[in-house]
Structure formats: structure tokens, C-alpha cells
TrEMBL record, chains A, B:
CDD domains, per the entry: HTH_ARSR
Organism: Thermococcus argininiproducens
PROSITE patterns: HTH_ASNC_2
Protein name in the entry: Lrp/AsnC family transcriptional regulator
Keywords, sorted A to Z: Coiled coil, DNA-binding, Transcription, Transcription regulation
GO molecular function: sequence-specific DNA binding
Domain HTH asnC-type: 5-66
Domain of life, source organism: Archaea
Coiled coil: 17-48
The keyword Zinc-finger appears for this protein: no
Length: 149, 149
């Protein structure tokens, strides 16, 4: 059985959301506890998948990329599992979120700063999505905030 | 003047996008180079803001939260800088992306698993956005992939 998430778990994760590279010692100091307690708890959060991933937010502009957020609407009965499996393999597809509501799939992709190339990429993507109803595209110019916990 | 991003920078960032908590020694082994070269380069990427942030992706379901992605359309002339400053202060607003295209602002928020509470939260948000034209809401049920580099 999985443990219930408590306040201490949320405190650890909130610090890591701001700086995922902080070490056990610093974490313990910040949360006014011992290194052992922090490491034990963090290992559990990782093992149980409460923390799914440690990752980075880059400056896409500096990398020479354009970052596109695409909201995808699917026709009723579209094979969403199969679509996700196909998109997962695509190196340029950086984020895949499954959703209900206005969009059923949110996909983020990066492409070089070249509109012809982006057009090609989006055309390619649209062919990979069986039962595609529509795609709404936004070009992300800045990630102002990103702290999921 | 800022340095140009080279292949080695991208390799480092690609590893960190998969696991941001990897240490210098492991990074150096993976990339077949020295710990010194890795640490020097990484410090530069941080200093120059090419890596904007190290963060975590949690399992929202385990945290007891609902995760909502909101695409916002603004009326022409809406004060986007001011809107962003207001939203930044909101603890429940976890992600703010500025964009051009279909949406001009993408906001992610978390709320407890309580539809009345979510309704209240979204209503509150809509009042904070001066010049709001429309909001498209999707409830994220799973983050299948998240590796921005």
C-alpha cells in the first residue's frame, strides 16, 4: 500500500520544484531536520513515483529553438493510447500531456528557428495523429514561471 | 558577450533533462569526459541562464490535486506585462508561459479534487486577467513525457 502524502513530503517537493539540484544537507537545513530523515523520505517519494522526474527548464531562445505548444482535439473514438505511443518516439516532441476538456492531448515540440521547417514538422505531426479533429498552436516566447509543486 | 551553445552543452542538458539530480562524476562518465570539464561548463550554462531552472515533475493525482492547463486569449491591447505580474504572485498558478498564436498566455494551475473549488479558482483567475477574451480549459490526466531538451 502506498503511503499518504503529508506536509513534510510537500515541503521537500516544494523546495525541489524551485531547485531540484539542492543536496540532502541543504534540504535538511532548510527544513530544519536531519539529513537522514530527508534522504529516507525523498527515496520513498521517488520509489513510489510521487516525484515522476527531475528535469530542467532551458532558455529555448538561447538554444536556437522555437518552442510550440499544440492543443489537439480528437474525434470521438480516436485511438489515444496508440497516438501517444507513436508521439513518444518522436525526438522533437518534448512534452505529451493527456487531458480531458477543451483539448484531449497537449503536445510541445521544439524546432529550429525556421518557419518552413516548423511547417514541415507540424504537417508530419498531424499525419501521426489518427482521428485528428483540430490543432491549436501557440509559439511560446517565454516561460515566466514553472514550479509544479 | 554570451558564448555560443555547442554540441557538448546540448549533451549535458539532454542528460539533465532526463535526470536533473545526476552528479558531476556520473555526468562526466556518461559523456566520456572529465568531472572538471563538466562542472565548468555546467556552471557557465547556469550563470548565463541557458539552464533557467532545475525542477521536478510530480504525480498530481498522488498529491491529491487536479492539474488544469488554461489557454488564454486576450483582447488586442491587453496589458500582458501587468497580467503576468499579477498571476506570478498567485501560489496556485504553477506555470505561466507567454506566447503568440492561438493563445497569448498559457497558465497551469493546481487545485484540490473538488469541482466547486476549481470553479471558484477559475472565476478568480478570470477576474485577474484584464482584457480577457476567452479561456480554453483542459484537465491534465497524465504527463506522459516531459524532457524539454
Amino acid at each position: 500500500m502506498k503511503n499518504k502524502i503529508d506536509k513534510f513530503d510537500l515541503q521537500i517537493m516544494s523546495v525541489l520544484a524551485k531547485n531540484a539540484r539542492i543536496n540532502y544537507r541543504q534540504l535538511a537545513e532548510l527544513l530544519n531536520t536531519t539529513r537522514q530523515r530527508v534522504s529516507r523520505r525523498l527515496e520513498r517519494l521517488e520509489r513510489e513515483g510521487v516525484i515522476k522526474k527531475y528535469t530542467i527548464i532551458p532558455d529555448f531562445d538561447r538554444l536556437g529553438y522555437i518552442y510550440v505548444a499544440i492543443g489537439i482535439s480528437l474525434k470521438p473514438g480516436a485511438p489515444i493510447e496508440k497516438i501517444i505511443e507513436t508521439l513518444k518516439e518522436d525526438e522533437e516532441v518534448k512534452v505529451i500531456q493527456r487531458a480531458i476538456g477543451y483539448h484531449q492531448l497537449i503536445v510541445h515540440l521544439v524546432a529550429p528557428k525556421n518557419m518552413k521547417e516548423i511547417e514541415r514538422k507540424i504537417h508530419e505531426l498531424s499525419k501521426k495523429v489518427e482521428g485528428l479533429e483540430g490543432m491549436d498552436m501557440s509559439f511560446v516566447t517565454d516561460i515566466v514561471k514553472f514550479e509544479l509543486v
